[in-house]
Specification:
The longest helix has 26 residues, at 247-272. It is built from 15 helices and no strands. Helix 1 (10-22) runs antiparallel to helix 2 and helix 2 crosses helix 3. By secondary structure, the protein is mainly α. It has helices spanning 10-22, 28-39, 50-63, 67-80, 85-97, 101-114, 119-131, 135-148, 153-166, 169-182, 187-200, 203-219, 224-238, 247-272, 275-286. The protein is elongated and about 80 Å long. Helices cover 75% and strands 0% of the residues.
Length: 293
């Protein structure tokens, strides 16, 4: 809904800001326009909400690349709270938004030196290193972070992605195993770990991948990707001499996975009429042959 700025008082703007904060709405463009048009000169009248409003305006200013407004608000807060780590965080955010990464890292390092248990600046530092393309440094920092915050699942997931980008699949698999410890009932994590193991290649890894794909399918019987993964793994095992004792079993399992996938795609076709997807899957299955022994 469009706001009529000309008919709004500073109290109306304050109430709008409060509602957006409570509803977790950014509304960055509206915040900046209302701030400049009405509230900037009246912010001292907002009482206890003044600091919350200034922080809200800082975030909105960074969203809209109004670094001048963000700078003035940060300066006002820093004069009132000199040495505040919260204000330092906003300074780092502004520098990062302006792509002054080296200066942003210096501020973040100062925050970390003051409080080593503060996870947020460490994460921002890792994000900056990643944005600059310094994946090796980001991996090093993320490993240091995980020594102190070992239960952070998102961090393990991010480290897995970084190792994947570097082609270090063994370490990526280790990271996903850590994520799996926290979410043993997630079929998507089992599936991701299976995909990493399959990518690593080799008879042992493909056999392990089949196990993870099977668990993913057990947790979600409609996981078509897991069925496809089982088919690929069993196809490889059935045609491998390294796993001779498992070849016959793998052949039967591959046929079962193919039948289940065909049934699943047929039911999806009736519900969603997604003919192109099903045709491509059937084509993929049709081009894979398994030799029986």
């Amino acid at each position: 809904m469009a706001l009529n700025y000309e008919e709004m008082s500073w109290r109306d703007v304050r109430d709008h800001f409060r509602k957006w904060r409570e509803d977790n709405e950014r509304r960055s463009d509206d915040v900046i326009q209302l701030w400049e048009a009405i509230l900037e000169d009246k912010v001292s009248k907002t009482g206890n909400e003044r600091h919350l409003i200034l922080e809200q305006v800082i975030v909105a200013a960074l969203d809209t690349s109004r670094f001048d407004i963000a700078g003035r608000c940060i300066k006002e807060l820093s004069q009132e709270f000199p040495g505040s780590m919260r204000v330092m965080k906003f300074k780092a955010m502004r520098l990062e938004a302006m792509e002054r990464y080296s200066e942003a890292i210096e501020v973040l390092d100062a925050i970390i030196a003051k409080d080593e248990t503060n996870a947020a600046p460490r994460k921002r530092k890792i994000a900056i290193l990643k944005a600059k393309g310094r994946r090796t440094d980001a991996i090093k920092e993320l490993n240091e972070y995980l020594k102190k915050f070992m239960s952070d699942q998102e961090a393990w997931h991010e480290l897995c992605n970084l190792y994947m980008a570097e082609g270090d699949y063994a370490k990526a698999a280790f990271c996903m195993e850590e994520v799996l410890l926290h979410n043993p009932h997630s079929h998507l994590i089992h599936q991701r770990l299976a995909e990493i193991r399959y990518t690593m290649g080799g008879a042992e890894n493909i056999d392990i991948a089949r196990t993870y794909y099977s668990q993913a399918l057990k947790l979600n019987p409609n996981n078509l990707r897991a069925l496809y993964g089982i088919y690929l793994c069993c196809s490889s095992i059935a045609n491998s001499r390294a796993l001779g004792s498992k070849r016959k079993e793998a052949y039967k399992m591959a046929q079962w996975a193919l039948d289940q996938a065909n049934k699943l795609t047929s039911s999806v076709s009736k519900i969603e009429n997604n003919d192109k997807l099903i045709a491509s899957l059937e084509s993929a299955f049709g081009h894979l042959e398994i030799k029986s022994y």
